[in-house]
Amino acid sequence: MMTIGMVAQQSGVPTKTIRYYEEIALIAPAERAANGYRVYELRTVEVLRFIKRARDLGFSIEEVTELLALWRDSGRTAREVHAIASAHLQRIDRKIAELQSLRATVADLLVHCHGDDRPDCPILEDLASIQPEENP
Fold first, then answer.
1. What average pLDDT score do residues 30-51 get?
2. Do 116 and 62 share a domain, yes or no?
3. Which of 7, 57, 59, 121 has the most CB atoms around it within 10 Å of its CB?
4. Which residues face 31 on adjacent strands?
5. pLDDT of 22 above 90
6. What is the number of other CB atoms lying within 10 angstroms of the CB of residue 4?
7. What's the rounded Cα separation, in Å, for the pair 64 and 68?
8. Which range marks the domain in which residue 116 is found?
9. Is 33 found in the same domain as 11?
10. What is the pTM of this model?
């Protein structure tokens, strides 16, 4: 059995996050020792490492919940896992496109700003102008 501090150290997941994962039932609640402290099994470290890696890759809590269920299910199909990862990749690609568009806009604004001691600034003028909303 391991304390929450030991589990946190070995999994790389902060203790506060471990408590949160218990609260939302992403991991099983810890048993309690006679002194009231949480105690965990070694398997919890493996589960937390799985969750941490998935979160580091940007999967949502909902997706991690699904992936955990599939990881635990020996009857799963790779198709199910692939579908979750594929949808996630599409969201990443959309976000990259949005960021590239933002970058291009800011770069264009910088080209038009002299960046000198003059008070006029095309960047501020652009920010102050009313832009029509774009549909996402």
1. 93
2. no
3. 7
4. 39
5. yes
6. 20
7. 6
8. 85-128
9. yes
10. 0.81
